[in-house]
Amino acid sequence: MKILLLNGPNLQLLGTREPGIYGRDTLASITAEVTVLGSELGCEVSARQSNVEGELVSWIGNARAEGFDGIILNAAAYTHTSVALRDAISAVALPTVEVHLSNTASREEFRHRSLIAPVCLGVIAGFGKDSYILALRALCAKLSR
Ligand code: DQA
């Protein structure tokens, strides 16, 4: 099984970005941990990050053609704004798990609404890097059923 792990804007700064909110793990270390666990679970993880909405839209739209079976997506700020990302998830129709490091429901009101949650399999938020680990376990379990 092949899983596409996508990270949106500003997540390349993890490690130094508001560590009180996002923790001290870097995107590279999270990606490495998720990739290792993926291979233990029989899921090959390919990770990409972009600050550009259209690039994320294209990666999601091409995911089926690239042979991916599912997507783990931290759309970051685009979670709260992007109809285009939501439409891409609907269009590609691959099981997609929305993840967030922080508990968006306990933060500013503008972070309470996710435009993508209704078209995702589920949402995992608030567990720092473990949000990604839990998302991977959930998606691999779903795909192997
Ligand atoms: C985030 C939460 C978003 O509201 C925010 O814009 C981010 C990161 C998270 O992982 O907690 O950039 O997606």
Proportion of residues in helical segments = 25-40%
Largest sheet: 5 strands, parallel
Count of helical regions: 5
Bound molecules: 1,3,4-trihydroxy-5-OXO-cyclohexanecarboxylic acid
**Percent of residues in beta strands:** 15-25%
Radius of gyration: 14 Å
Count of the domains: 1
Across the major sheet, the strand order is 2-1-3-4-5
The average pLDDT value, as a whole number, equals: 98
Taking the alpha carbons of the first and last residues, their distance comes to 12 Å
CATH architectural arrangement: 3-Layer(aba) Sandwich
Tell me the series of helices and strands, N- to C-terminal: EHHEHEHEEH
What's the total number of strands? Answer: 5
General form: globular
Structural class designation: alpha/beta
The unreliable regions are none
CATH topology: Rossmann fold
Name its key features.
single chain, 145 residues, alpha/beta, Rossmann fold, five-stranded parallel β-sheet, globular, binds 1,3,4-trihydroxy-5-OXO-cyclohexanecarboxylic acid
Description:
- With 145 residues, the chain is of the alpha/beta class.
- The protein has a single domain, classed as Dehydroquinase, class II (Rossmann fold, 3-Layer(aba) Sandwich), CATH 3.40.50.
- The chain has helices spanning 19-22, 27-41, 53-62, 83-92, 129-143; strands at residues 2-7, 44-49, 70-74, 96-100, 122-125.
- Strands 2-1-3-4-5 form a five-stranded parallel beta sheet, with helices on both faces.
- Strand 3, helix 4 (83-92) and strand 4 (96-100) form a beta-alpha-beta unit.
- Helix 2 runs parallel beside helix 5 (129-143) and helix 3 (53-62) packs parallel to helix 4 (83-92).
- It is globular, with a radius of gyration of 14 Å.
- The structure holds 1,3,4-trihydroxy-5-OXO-cyclohexanecarboxylic acid.
- 1,3,4-trihydroxy-5-OXO-cyclohexanecarboxylic acid (DQA) binds at residues 10, 74, 76-77, 79, 100-102, 104, 111.
- 1,3,4-trihydroxy-5-OXO-cyclohexanecarboxylic acid (DQA) is lined by residues 10, 74, 76-77, 79, 100-102, 104, 111.
